[in-house]
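> forwarded from #structure-qc
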């Protein structure tokens, strides 16, 4: 009996330890600088690279990856230096070709893992630190995937755009300074082990601005709709969209103070609708130590907050997970629409980040080389403008019967297709990238 008791106790200890939490330091009190200024030349930790004043990156080493289990929480803390306004920041995962010593963020596949908003902070008034937490367990499947690790290194980006100009005159000790925020990031994980080898990941949109007044920001001027077409080379099981949106604006014309219904559809079927904003911003009042135009001197009721506040300074922005089930190979269409958004005086915008994750049914290197193509407007009356992070070798225009009606050599990352001479209807634009091709549907009005 005594022997069995110790055997049971040992088993319990083993199970407990196998689920123990592990804290992995990623960034320790890094200092961000004026996002509008030239790149500063101050030293960083040896394994940290400052890509911009508002963007740090760090490659996850094999030792760090080995510690990651089946759960992952991002613990972030931000404290004020010399920026006293509410700003948007985020944590990103960059999928960098294996062995690279650095990379260009503008031409690299990146996923936004979490977005947060700083409070109005006076660095001289406590509390001078605000915490944020994101649960991103799905990311462990990417980081631990055996196959993905053979073609990518994974770099974690810490991003926070700040501006010191107001604080230089409003905050004691900030005159002449251009440092804006301090940031710390830790991973919290468990010790369970897994080695997936069928994870599919496709970056579809990374912080791309949505509004109705800039060419390329939406499907067309005066529309607040974005349509994203994507190809699946093989069927994807247990697919999910991960979407992050938040409204932003300046002065009275911005959309950040207006709650607008967002409608999400896949292949013309609505799969989600939501109204951004929290029930109340009062839990974050304690962190807003600088006088501002959002928090008044006295608490507001939930009804008052919901009447005008689209976000709470000091809060995280939700990650909206959409379960899609199994997706067939071929063309698919994602659409986000915010039909009542009004950008008075061309002020404000909605940054949109989106990626698709699932289980691949037929592993192939090309499946993971996510080629993101932007094309607009669609529908169009004449021309379609196309841009991509990769060199487009050639383009074919194909009609509904599958007949190639025009070909064009491109050999550039940008081009245009002129459909003026063609009849109204549906066409397919097939873009060739070496042995890989991408096909998008275009409607000619």
């Amino acid at each position: 009996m005594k022997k069995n008791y110790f055997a049971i106790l040992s088993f319990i200890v083993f199970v407990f330890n196998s689920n123990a939490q592990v804290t992995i330091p990623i960034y320790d009190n890094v200092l961000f600088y004026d996002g509008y200024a030239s790149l500063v030349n101050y030293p960083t930790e040896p394994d940290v690279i400052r890509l911009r004043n508002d963007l740090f990156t760090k490659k996850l080493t094999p030792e760090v990856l080995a510690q990651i289990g089946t759960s992952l929480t991002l613990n972030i803390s931000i404290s004020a230096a010399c920026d006293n306004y509410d700003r948007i920041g985020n944590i990103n995962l960059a999928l960098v070709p294996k062995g690279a010593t650095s990379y260009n963020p503008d031409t690299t596949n990146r996923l936004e893992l979490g977005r947060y908003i700083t409070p109005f902070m006076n660095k001289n008034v406590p509390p001078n630190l605000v915490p944020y937490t994101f649960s991103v367990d799905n990311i462990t499947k990417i980081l631990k995937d055996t196959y993905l690790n053979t073609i990518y290194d994974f770099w974690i980006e810490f991003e926070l755009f700040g501006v010191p100009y107001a604080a230089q005159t409003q905050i004691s000790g900030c005159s002449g300074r251009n440092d804006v925020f301090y940031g710390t990031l830790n991973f919290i994980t468990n010790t369970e082990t897994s080695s997936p080898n069928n994870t599919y990941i496709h970056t579809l949109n990374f912080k791309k601005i949505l509004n109705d007044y800039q060419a390329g920001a939406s499907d067309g001027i005066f529309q607040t709709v974005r349509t994203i077409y994507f190809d699946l080379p093989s069927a994807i099981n247990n697919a999910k969209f991960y979407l992050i949106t938040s409204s932003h604006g300046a002065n009275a014309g911005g959309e950040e103070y207006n709650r607008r219904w967002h409608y999400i559809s896949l292949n013309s079927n609505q799969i989600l609708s939501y109204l951004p904003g929290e029930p109340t911003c009062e839990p974050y009042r304690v962190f807003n130590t600088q006088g501002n135009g959002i928090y008044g001197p006295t608490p507001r009721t939930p009804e008052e907050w919901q009447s005008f506040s689209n976000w709470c300074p000091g809060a995280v922005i939700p990650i909206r997970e959409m379960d899609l089930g199994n997706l067939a190979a071929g063309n698919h269409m994602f659409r986000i629409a915010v039909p009542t958004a009004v950008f008075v005086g061309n002020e404000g915008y909605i940054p949109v980040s989106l990626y698709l994750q699932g289980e691949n049914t037929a592993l192939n290197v090309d499946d993971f080389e996510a080629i993101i193509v932007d094309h607009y407007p669609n529908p169009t009356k004449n021309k379609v403008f196309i841009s991509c992070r990769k060199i487009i070798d050639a383009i074919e225009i194909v009609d509904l019967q599958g007949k190639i009606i025009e070909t064009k050599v491109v050999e550039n990352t940008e081009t245009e297709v002129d459909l003026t001479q063609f009849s109204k209807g549906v066409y397919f634009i097939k873009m060739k990238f070496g042995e890989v091709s991408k096909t998008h549907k275009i409607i000619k009005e």
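QC bot note: The first helix runs from residue 2 to 18. Helices lie at 2-18, 62-67, 138-144, 146-151, 165-170, 302-306, 365-368.
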